[in-house]
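From the pipeline queue, job 12 of 40. The input is one protein chain; the requested action is below.

Action: predict structure.
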Amino acid sequence: MELSWIDIGIIGAYLVLTLMLGFWLSKRASKNLEAYFLGGNKIKWYFLGLSNASGMFDISGTMWTVTIAFVYGLKSVWIPWLWPVWNQIFVMVFLAIWMRRSNVMTGAQWITFRFGDGRGGRLSHIIVVVFAVISVIGFIAYFFEGIGKFATTFFVWDLSAQFLGINISSEQSYALIIIGITTLYTLKGGMFSVVSTEVLQFLIMTVASISIAVVAYNMVTAEQIAAAVPEKWDQLFFSWELDLDWSTLFPELNDKIATDGFGLFGCLVMMMIFKGIFASLAGPVPSYDMQRILSTRTPGEAAKMSGLTPLVLYIPRYLMIAGFTVMALVYLKPELMGMGADIDFEMVLPLAIKRFVPVGLQGLLLAGLLAAFMGTFAAFINAAPAYLVNDLYKKYINPKASDKRLVHYSYLSSFLLVIIGVSFGLFATSLNRLTLWLTSSLYGGYAAANVLKWIWWRFNGMGYFWGMLGGLLGSVIAPALVRIWFPEAIDIYIFPLILLLSFGASWIGTLLTKPDDTETLKKFYKQTKPWGFWKPIKDEVLKEDPSFKVNNDLLRDSFNIIIGIIWQMTMIVLPFYIMLRDKEAAAITMVVLAATTILLKKYWYNHIKKI
């Protein structure tokens, strides 16, 4: 099925509008690095929140989420805890405030603020730049894999080619074209372009998501869904084993579950919680999430921006995901089984769009999904060059470089990172494998050192450097070694080993070297106001300033995190209950959503207003 000219026109009009917006904003963005990377700290928090939500609406993630919903049913809402999806709640409750109080431009600059500019601080600074670059390259490969699969379902022109002896498929050619357009408008407009286009993208996606939910609700009945799925597919809670048997309905899905390694579901969720607590306490990784926090005007607005993101994101996004899932279950089984031994469940979303979405709405939805991809991709390639230009070139090579030169070098570094990431993407084979490596292995190496940096005064720059280095090496070496003896092991089960390596390296590096400068630690503690093991520094600060207010909010923050995670989960499961016509479960979910909203208003938002 080819796209109609109406749909092609809608997509084309959106792409032209995006490019025009990027070029129009380029003058404001090119004033200096602060304007280019942070919008000059002049963008309102609610625009940044909508932009952040749009950045989490990417095609690759949506394809993966529809796939797991198709296979695992309502229990699939637990699987995004791999990231974990609720790290946003930790950021909302307290980490955004702590991070924004630093008044820096990048995560690497923040490291200098925390550890000073001695040998340990400089080594830590460099290792964060390395991690930021590696993670961005990994995500570019992830995006490349997803957008290529998606595009070839709708665009029928054969664009396969050969370049420098490498065979490039149509799938990869489409990905290159879309990535090229995104890179162009991002380079020109910087953070202003990213936020402006993402607000537009979010509005398009919200309209498209609600429209898809209405289409699905009218096309599929509760009886049809019940006939298409096995027993317990529609149940949220679980026992130790997944206990989901597709044998009589779709036997290939049992093979998919075995390949994913999610059969021991109780063990999987326990491991995700264990990993998630450390990963969330570590704070935002040095990418687009952190950049938006640093772009806000005040610490209080940073917290409100982070709280707005889940509030506006999850219900519309999961209405679309639930809608596509039930339509695919009822109507797409013949197409999927027709793929034979090469069945690709990651094609559920594009096939559902192609089959069920009417002309006009299809163009709007595809423009929205392209917008979501472009927004997320743009956010990454706008965040990463700050580390190369501001944290390497300006700091160590040319401190007196002009603003014009720094912005031009930012263009160049963005372009080079895209080229490297796309090169890796050419050899990627699975969104699921990339997702598991990024969420469990690479981010596993980030967790230990970045938890300790917040809560322990004695943790120094050398400890951070060795902890991060141990984690990065562990994220590459540990999965390879474990799979020698356990070939089917998935990355989440390797996380504790990576975490142990990183923690061990952090402790040894810290205890074998002297503490950081006391004045640096006092400045950090007074400005950031963290809770944790800071007694020696706290005593020094109180000696100098008895009026200093110590942060005693650990219990309140912990309470708000628990309530916030429940609040977030209600917004994810509610669209599924609506689509399944489970009125009782939907009503209970809405009551829980209302109750948690009231509690967060009283114990979180009212406190934020005082900051």
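Job complete. Residues 170-219 form the longest helix (50 residues).
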